[in-house]
Amino acid sequence: MKPFAWSYTALQDYETCPHAYAAKRVYKTVKDEMSPEGLWGNEVHKKLEQRLVHKTPLPADMPFEKWATVIERSIEPGDELKCEMQLALNREFKPTGWFAKDAWCRGIVDVMLIKENGATAYVYDWKTGKVKTDQTQLKLFVGILSRAYPDIERFITKFVWLKHNKVTPSQVEGDRFLKEWVPDIWREIYPRVKRMEEAYNAEVFPMKPNGLCGKYCPVITCPHNGRHGK
User: What angle do helix axes 182-202 and 8-16 make, rounded to 10 degrees?
Assistant: First the structure.
């Protein structure tokens, strides 16, 4: 097997069901075909990047101009806008290439606006699905960005739920992270990653029934799969 590496989505897959995670990401015995909703979500990310970077108008089926305008109007002279950033860290928590052999942790930041002479970063993550409350992904972005951009002192992070016309967290107190808090972020996330890596190294991936079993999991050989034996 390849050296262990992870991302937020990989961690989410593992914690949902280790068996399905292994089939899709480790042994690759099944191909996780992306749903129409997932494909549309990828296209939304692409079009929003083009809108912010190249001023390309959004298609008629993507009525999200409001959010592009909100970000655009907040840009002041000296600010720096970055979109769809592929970031990776090695085991020493040092930045490395996305495809580098020592890449250990990866994350894609949809939008980052660096303000106040590089001291503050506003981080936005586009979401096209159901509204959820878990902030792990935003915290991970802060952990990665703090290593890639060590001069940033504070991060303001937001999920933008495009289909629901909603932003979370809604209050400043819930989305502000200071640089000195980053060690606490890693202390919170790392034990989960460690459990995942230990399972990876031992090749122990038990089945875990969950809400995806009925008709969404591609591992039809699993007895918990709703399409098993059909």
Answer: 50
If DSSP codes are grouped into helix, strand and coil, which group holds residue 24? helix
pLDDT tier for residue 230 given thresholds of 50, 70 and 90:
low
d(CA 69, CA 116): 20
Encoded amino acid at 143, one letter: G
CA 26 to each of CA 2, 52, 203: distance values in angstroms, whole numbers, following the listed order: 8, 36, 9
Rounded to 5°, the CA angle 125-126-128 comes to 140
> One-letter amino acid identity for 30?
V
- Does the pTM exceed 0.90? yes
Distance CA 124, CA 202 (A): 36
pLDDT exceeds 70 at position 173: no
Return phi, psi of residue 135, to 5°: -100, 10
